[in-house]
Write a structure and sequence with these properties.
Oligomer: heterodimer
Strand order of the largest sheet of chain B: 2-1-5-3-4
Order of helices and strands of chain B: EEHEEEHHHEEHEEEEH
Shape of chain A: globular
Distance between the termini of chain A: 69 Å
Number of strands of chain A: 19
Distance between the termini of chain B: 45 Å
Strand order of the largest sheet of chain A: 12-11-15-13-14
Radius of gyration of chain A: 26 Å
């Protein structure tokens, strides 16, 4: 490929790519996101390729391995485009039939269709699947159409058009103005207005003119993987966002700081950088405009704290990844003391959209102070787990019930934890809460980077708080006293409560420690760390009190406070629980007689409870 | 120069200074354990937190790091500030119950009884990093560092062993606010005791009076960095003309 030397040449190249493609030609897209990889999607795509070769259909049918489609629960996912036929749980054995029946004869294979768990109705088209129908996939949508290793695929769907537009004569200040007007706020957790950040960075004095651009891809929240899927599935969109940002603030060097645990993301971004350089979209004199920008990848070493901007920059500089006070902002003195703009993956991926369609178009989606969409990783006790992109302002109820398909096993919804480990728990009573930056913060939680963990009646809120505080205790860098010592003490108190050693005053002490962290911790990890405790106390205080005063765990989770019992009337003595019990605490009570559970030997693992389909084991 | 108010008192200060420095210049006491004027501020102990109001916005900041600014209004004691200091000292008291300095400060802040279970084996170290900062920034050898993360954090030499680059100067001990590092010259040997390692250094004997007066490694280091002939240290300072 010859380097493109002007925006006009870029458009010409795009036209040439599109003209060589037949929009009507069947294309089998196989989701190759990390979730589908775990389900063995590679074998599926290989099977398709082999079958097409065998039938000599190379000219008539395309197979494309794409990034994550989001509906990870039902992987491996296959969509036959352009007809949009959606198959789920596809195996390599299905490939031949899909080609012979669906691709060649237009017949739909019923068994591979998605069935609505509530109505049982089979659904043929991807856009009609409730999981997708309720979403607005502006940022994430192209993931299902393009091969992340092909820059041509990205160009075919309009990629780098925003860069071309910007370099066709839009002044950097005007780009910043457009981003400011769009109301875009940082998707990594803080929610800081992106345009204002860029403006401050552009205006910050830099004697040698050096300004850095960083993409924060150190996504580390348990259960959250939207940035990973964006980088893996559509790396060029992130690079394009960074390029536009660099042009706007006057930066020439950029870094993608990505977790070491994301090898596919690293691979795809590395390839994308190389391709963009070959096309003249990165490097010197980009599209002949005189603008230079290069991007390097830096892999994180596995510390959660390195997602914090100042710790990330310290790590990039080769120092220990510890945060510093940001009284002098990183936009003024960031990486190597130079003005630095750091945005997260999803924020960067929003930028080309805004430039392409304009701020007025962008602001049509969202609420007063939260514009656009947000990608959430919807996980936990919900039928349809996966990545969902929704307009800001959508209610929790719509996400959990309409898109997520409700709670499995007919259980009752109890709460949803948003915002990652430092987020909070939002109870059932706030199910109609519109999801945006301000509403989530008001509820005692936060947007964070977009983790959304659904919990049902079987989740104990003390246990949840204990889990998250334990996580943060382990990830605290240990620099400041409130975070290092305070989290340890909070975890100890929570351990005590869940083990039946809770005492009067524990809740007050938790609240006092929380205030000390909120007010006194050095960085955002520490200052937001009490949220899981504060929000569970706020909404589930009675549950804490039941543990402390009555030594009872209402959800039946905290081992020291529960016993398992056999309901004799319901137990036919099938013995399934006997086999599952690792402590040999259950013995036969005779033929067709209820089994006998020895409380002395019981280790309260719950294996009998899980295995019994007759509900003959109860927790009390 | 900027004008600011600390506890109702108008102060004038140079722009690059921090609140803590300016308060100290004006005789206003702010407690701290991790600050020392010879090394860069670190902001770890959080005892020096104060309330600042700037452009109508109130927030709590670490005064050792926060730069003064025109019109800044600082209050060094508010209920929120006192809550942080009190809880921090309670946490440190539980961590290092044997440290007299922590005990005294706890007493001054109205904390007489520990509320958390007391820890053992922390050897009075509050992880303020003054020792590592002085070793790196002032001495310039980086013989010690902080290792591990979070609650497992420790001040240590590489591999908890004799540090090959340590010159035995004892600056770490000098700067340690809680006396977690001590040193003693016994005969011809200097013994530096740190929380997780004890190191011994041979002392140089004065060729005139016969007194052991400084670690040989330290003298070699000074000679090398200052470009002085090693023989210059054959005689101790007391015996020089």
């Amino acid at each position: 490929m010859e380097r493109l030397s002007s925006p006009a040449e870029l458009e010409k190249a795009r036209k040439s790519i599109v003209s060589k493609r037949d929009a009507k030609k069947p294309c089998i897209t196989v989701c190759s996101g990390t979730g589908c990889h775990a389900f063995g999607c590679e074998k599926v795509s290989t099977a398709f390729q082999n079958e097409i070769k065998r039938l000599g259909l190379e000219e008539k049918v395309d197979v494309r391995t794409t990034g994550c489609h989001g509906f990870c629960e039902r992987g491996p996912l296959v969509v036959i485009r352009p007809r949009d036929i959606f198959y789920q749980r596809v195996s390599a054995d299905d490939a031949a039939e899909i080609i012979s029946e669906t691709v060649l004869k237009n017949n739909v294979i019923d068994r591979l269709l998605y069935a609505d768990p509530n109505t049982g109705k089979k659904i043929v088209h991807e856009h009609e699947v409730p999981f997708y129908a309720g979403q607005k996939r502006l940022v994430f949508g192209n993931n299902g159409y393009i091969d992340p290793s092909s820059i041509e695929d990205y160009l075919a769907v309009g990629g780098y058009a925003a860069l071309g537009k910007v370099l066709s004569g839009i002044k950097p200040e005007a780009v910043i103005e457009e981003i400011k007007k769009s109301g875009l706020r940082g998707r990594g957790g803080g929610g800081f207005p992106t345009g204002i950040k860029w403006e401050s960075c552009r205006n910050a004095p830099s004697p040698d003119g050096v300004r850095y651009i960083i993409c924060n891809a150190d996504e580390g929240d348990p259960g959250a993987y939207m940035d990973r899927s964006l980088l893996e599935g559509n790396p060029h969109s992130v690079l394009e966002g960074m390029l536009i940002g660099a042009y706007a603030i006057g930066g020439h060097e950029g870094y993608v700081y990505v977790r070491h645990e994301y090898p596919l993301a690293v691979k795809n971004v590395r390839l994308a950088i190389k391709q963009a350089e070959e096309y003249g979209l990165l490097g010197k004199n980009i599209l002949g405009s005189g603008f230079d920008f290069s991007i390097r990848i830096n892999r994180g070493g596995g510390a959660f704290i390195c997602g914090e901007s100042s710790a990330l920059m310290a790590s990039l500089e080769g120092k220990v990844g510890e945060p510093r006070a940001k009284y002098i902002h990183t936009v003024e003195k960031g990486l190597w003391e130079k003005p630095t703009t750091l945005n997260n993956v999803e924020t960067w991926a929003n930028v080309p959209l805004i430039i392409n369609h304009g701020a007025d178009w962008y602001t049509k989606t969202g609420t007063a102070n939260s514009k656009g969409t947000k990608i959430f990783s919807l996980v936990g006790k919900v039928n349809n787990t996966g990545l969902v992109e929704v307009p800001m302002g959508i209610t929790l109820k719509e996400i959990i019930y309409d898109i997520g398909g409700g709670i499995p096993g007919g259980k009752k919804f109890k709460a949803v934890q948003t915002g990652g480990p430092s987020g909070g728990v939002i109870p059932d009573s706030l199910i109609n809460l519109p999801v945006d930056f301000d509403e989530l913060t008001k509820s005692g939680s936060m947007m964070g980077s977009g983790g959304m963990i659904v919990m049902d009646e079987d989740n104990c809120m003390v246990d949840i708080a204990k889990y998250f505080i334990g996580f943060l205790e382990g990830e605290s860098c240990g620099k400041c006293v409130p975070c290092r010592e305070g989290l340890k003490r909070m975890r100890e108190i929570l351990d005590g409560i869940s083990e039946g050693r809770g005492k009067e005053g524990d809740i007050d002490l938790l609240e006092r420690l929380s205030t000390t962290l909120t007010d006194g911790a050095l960085c955002a990890l520490g200052s937001t760390a009490p949220n899981p405790v504060l929000s569970t106390i706020r909404y589930f205080r009675d549950e804490y009190e039941a543990h402390i005063k009555e030594k009872r765990c209402p959800a039946g989770v905290c081992k020291e406070l529960i016993t398992y019992q056999i309901i004799k009337e319901k137990c036919p003595g099938c013995g399934l629980c006997i086999k599952s019990c690792p402590a040999e605490a259950i013995t036969s009570g005779g033929k067709k007689q209820p089994v006998i559970l020895d409380q002395e030997k019981c280790i309260k693992c719950g294996a009998c409870y899980d295995v019994c389909k007759l509900g003959a084991v109860k927790v009390s | 120069m900027v004008k600011l108010t600390i506890d109702g008192r108008e102060c004038r200060a140079e722009e690059e200074k921090t609140i803590l420095e300016v308060a100290s210049e004006n005789g206003i006491h702010i407690p701290t354990l991790c600050y020392h004027e010879e090394v860069s501020p670190y902001g770890a102990c959080r005892l020096c937190m104060v309330e600042v109001t700037r452009k109508g916005r109130k927030r709590l900041v670490a005064s050792c790091l926060y730069p003064v600014a025109e019109g800044l209004v600082v209050r060094t004691e508010t209920p929120e500030v006192n809550n942080i200091r009190r809880t921090v000292i309670e946490l440190l008291l539980a961590r290092c119950p044997d440290s007299e300095v922590v005990q005294e400060m706890a007493h001054d802040l109205g904390v007489d009884k520990p509320i958390f279970s007391l820890e053992e084996d922390n050897h009075k170290c509050i992880l303020c990093a003054l020792c590592t900062r002085v070793c790196q920034e002032v001495v310039g050898v980086s013989a010690i560092t902080l290792v591990n993360r979070g609650v497992d954090r420790q001040m240590a030499t590489p591999f908890y062993d004799f540090s090959e680059v340590c010159i035995g100067c004892g600056s770490c001990s000098f700067v340690c606010p809680t006396r977690a590092i001590s040193f003693e010259d016994v005969g011809d040997t200097r013994v530096i005791t740190m929380p997780h390692v004890t190191m011994e250094f041979k002392l140089k004997k004065c060729s005139k009076c016969g007194k052991y007066w400084a670690p040989e490694r330290q003298l070699e280091y000074i000679a090398k960095t200052a470009g002085i002939a090693p023989e210059a240290f054959d005689i101790c300072p007391d015996c020089r003309d």
